[in-house]
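Q: Study each token:
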Amino acid sequence: MKKISIKDVALKAGVSIASVSYVLNNKVNSRIGKETAEKVIKAAEELNYRANTAAKNLKTQRTNIIGLIVADIANPYFSQIARIIENEATKRGYTLIIGSSDENKEKFESLVNMFYHRQAEGLIIAPVENSEICLQKLQKHNIPFVFIDRYLSKIKANNIQINNYEISYNATQHLIEENRKNILLVAYETTLDHLLKRTKGFKDALKKYNLTYSDSNILNIDKDKIDTDINDGFDRLFQSEPKPDAVFFTSNKLAVSGLKKLMKLEIAIPTDLAVVAFDETEAYELFSVPLSYVSQPLSEIGIAAVKLLHEKITNPLLPLQTIVLDAEMHIKESSKPKN
């Protein structure tokens, strides 16, 4: 069977070899239009072309490259887990290349294409919403991947999860047991299942303890307008009656933005308001009151993800696995009982 070359891709796309090289090496600039880039990617996919990289071991036909796509490398959760995954990958003889999607579908797809053409042997992925079609292409080309942090229910793949429902239920239960009656959940507007489970855990805890639940108990935040949505929402909620007497933030980014707003509103924590947040970040240390938070088992997640990917690379016929790990509550001063 003839080996497909970069010249073949250029001929099929009707563009120059240089243009193909720019696109497939993820170096698109102002000289390469979006239409040209799309033609090149389509032609490469139809021809099943994968670039010949210098890292390729000619004897084993392996590159020993694996990719990691995180949602936001600036988020301490992802930067910490990236370091753990890099260490584990190195131990197993892999070179790890990291990309950040910034929760953007187009950027996510561009990263997936880049890893495909770099001949990555497998990927560890925090998928973005509505990226199923892109991931189905990876499966079509038999490139293994493992989901971390979140997963897409329509895509069958190895994945590492935490007990999102249970830990959210437990965090809400803790606030109720500390005599909080009007608890506010600050969550993202999303279709991602792991975040929806956190919301469901919250709702079910309120129901279990016969607390009144209404739409005002959840403040849904647009991921692209976090500060604006929290600012407007808190102005409204804390100027109405009954005011929230507890807040549960479902991510560290939401928590940091929310805590800054609470300071501006001069709301006393925990006297007037108890606070619990999801995930750790050093930013919590800047607030005067030690914060109660949920921690995820980052080391276990990273180690398990690399192990699953390595096993799937070396033995593609292995059955898929879902591993569920337990997060942990850390009770601090911010959620002390209401007097």
Notes: The longest strand covers residues 65-70. The first helix runs from residue 6 to 13. Residues 171 and 329 are 7 Å apart (CA to CA).
